[in-house]
Structure formats: structure tokens, C-alpha cells
Amino acid sequence: MRIAIDIDSTLHHYWDRLSDAALRRFGIDLPYEEQLDWGITRLRPDQLRICIEETHCSQAILAGEPYPDAAAIVSRWRDEGHFIHITSHRGGEALEATAAWLAQIGVPYDDLHCSEDKVARCVELGIDLLIDDSPLNLARAIENGILVATISHPWNRDLCEEEDVICARDWRGLAEQLDPLLARRARVRP
Ligand SMILES: [Mg+2]
To answer: Per UniProt, what is one Pfam family of this protein (predicted)?
Structure first.
């Protein structure tokens, strides 16, 4: 199978980084449990941009703590012959640090892409399964006939209830649901 995997809030817990930056720089609290949709309206667009830039600098990227089991599961999937595409909204300038971080935490991949339009890249690569926390990306992927899965977060709860999204609290839960599908649709790279 050809699998696309997002980074922020999928391979590591990004929200605390962002909310720490918002609090420190602007005194604005962004409680995780209250973030029920994709829009971050408590910050002005320029404030949000500054917080994202800060959390996507090389130092911050390299300090990312992966979710338990994430690296081992992705690594196993690749060993089993699945194609792994790592995809992120991070800017192109974050590519090098992101590649170094993936090597540091032991996530192997066949393709790494930083861009605003993740789903277009997934379509280009013939991706079968997208794992991403963004409800916008998940909905667009569904429209394009791509199977979707996510780590459960407050902002994708509604979509997970309404649409056909494989949703789990953690990577172990994701693997339990996805392994049978992957076994049925095993596909040798590339
Ligand atoms: Mg994400």
C-alpha cells in the first residue's frame, strides 16, 4: 500500500508547542480541549504565523518528541514493503531539519514533501491511505478516493463521527485497525 503520513499532531504532539508559543509571545491561551475546529481564531493571522514559524525553526523541529510507537510502526510498515510518503504543511525551509528529525527518531520514508497542498501530492503519488489530523485534508482525501485515518484530536472529532475515518487515540490503536487493511493490500515499493 502507498501510505502518506503527516507530521504535526500525527507523528508528535504539536499542540503544546503552538500553545506555549502563543502564551509566551502574546499571552493568549489555546486550551487543547477547546480547539474543536481547524480555525485558530484566538490568534490574529500575523500572530499565528509568528507562532508557527517559531515552532518550525530547526531547533524546535529537532526537539520534537514522537508519539509512543509511531516510529516503530511506520518502520515496520516500510519493512513490510509499503511505500511511505511523509507530508507536512511546514515550509520548504524546514525540509532539512525535518529530514534530520525523521532520521533521529527512526522513521524511514520513500518521499518527504513540505507543501501547502498535501492532497495534490498524494494524488500525484497514487497514495492509497492518508494519516493526517487535519479535517480539511481528510475531507479532501476522501473526495479523491483516498482511505483516511487519524490520531483523534478535538478538532477532528466531528469529522471522525460523520465520515468514514479510521480514528484512534494512539499509534497502537491505529496499527490495530490498519494492519488488517495493509495486509490485504500489500504492495511492493515503489
Ligand atoms: Mg498535522
So the answer is: NT5C
